[in-house]
Structure formats: C-alpha cells, structure tokens
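Recap from last week: sequence in, structure out.
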Amino acid sequence: MSDVSDPTETEAEAEAEVPAHTGSRATQVLGLAALAALALWVLYGLVWSPPDREMGDLVRLLYVHVPVAILFYAGAGLTTFASLMWLRRRSPGWDALAVAAAELGVVFGALTLLTGSIWGKPTWNTFWTWDARLTSTALLEVLLIGYLAVRRVDPSPSGGSTRASILGLLLFPNVIIVHFSVDWWRSLHQKATVTRLDPTIEGDMLVALMVGMAAGGLVFAWLLIHRFRVAWLEQQVERHDLDAAVAARRAEGQLSTNEPEAQPA
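Predicted structure tokens:
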C-alpha cells in the first residue's frame, strides 16, 4: 500500500491504491527540516539581523510578511495549474491538489493581509487604504475564497470541481496584476525589493528574508502534502459510498423483479 499519491494518475489507478494515512517517512523528514528552518528564521529575524536605519525593529515584521505573501501567490498559481490539469485530464489527483493549494492560499493570504495591516499602521498611519497593491491582493483573496465556495455550490463532485476550476483559471493572471500593480498605478506600497534580479536590500536583512522564504516554503510543502492526501482520501470515500449506494439500489431493483406477482383472492 502506497503512502504517496500522484496527481497525474487516472481514476482507475487512484482506486487501486488507497493510503492508510497522510504521513510518511518523507513527510517526517520534511517536517523536521521545517522546524529547524523555523528556528533559524526566528534567530535571524529577531536576534542576528540588525534594526533598519529608517524602520527600526519594525523591519522584522517584513521577514514574515514578504515570505507569506510569496507563498500566497504560490498557492494561487498552483491552484490555477491544477485546475487547468483537472479540466484537461479529469484526474482526481489534480482536483485534490487544486483544493489543497487553494485552502493554503486562503490561509497565507489572510496572514499577508494581517501582517501588512499591522505594518501599515505605524508606517502609513492606517491599517488599510485603497492602494492598488492592497486592493488587488484583497481581490485575489476573495477569488480564492470564491473558488472554494463554488466547489460546494454544485452537489455533484465532478460538477463542483469543473465549475471551480474555471474560476481557478483566473487566479494566476490576478497574481500577475498584484505583482505589477505597484508599477502600473501610483501606489503607496513600495515597489518590489527581493523579487527582482538586483534586490534593494542586502546583508543580514537579505539573509533573514531568504531564510524566511525557505522556512515558509518547507512549511507550505509539508501542509500541502498532508492536505492533498486528506482531499484524495475524501474523494475515495465519496466514490466508494456512491458505488455502494448504486449497488444497493440495483439489488433492490432485482429483488422487486424476482418477486412473484400477487394472485387475486
């Protein structure tokens, strides 16, 4: 019995292997690596990196905000890719990957908006403003929530997945809009600093950000694998319950056909 599910497998292949749990030796190693990276992230972010000349210790919040924002965009982009593959192949693995990435995207999106608001209050004197970057980021979060809501509107599993996948195709184009919003419109939000070939920060601050991205990426991957496996197991349970219900209904039909007709008194 395999513990690993491949999103490219067909429904017949998926039915042949059902994992007993969502963990494996690989995820255990990944989890330990994530914990070690998180510890290093805390040391770099809070102890080893110096305060910024302008922002002071407030810069340490960016060591969290920037990595979670990038993982937010990664979740949205992965949802778009998995949605496209679901529409092409109808593989339950791709559908499970899409919903797992979307749910993680919503979580990291909420963290992005929360940490950004906390940073904005002492910097811009407001928790929120209708800035192009902030607004486009909030819209992306709403789209991801809408993607998950659409999946529940249609009670049929394949119908809900198909409708949601069409909406999922809009997510990554919105990531591009979010990224370039600071260049396309006059934005209060600062322009890109680390997602460019020549980062405008350096030294221990750049290292702290890179460690944060690595740690966040490991946590994201660990959560994604487990959520993907849970979603895939849920699909198997739904499919098996449906098969059992159909078999029971057919058995009832055969019994009614074989029953002798009642004779008149």
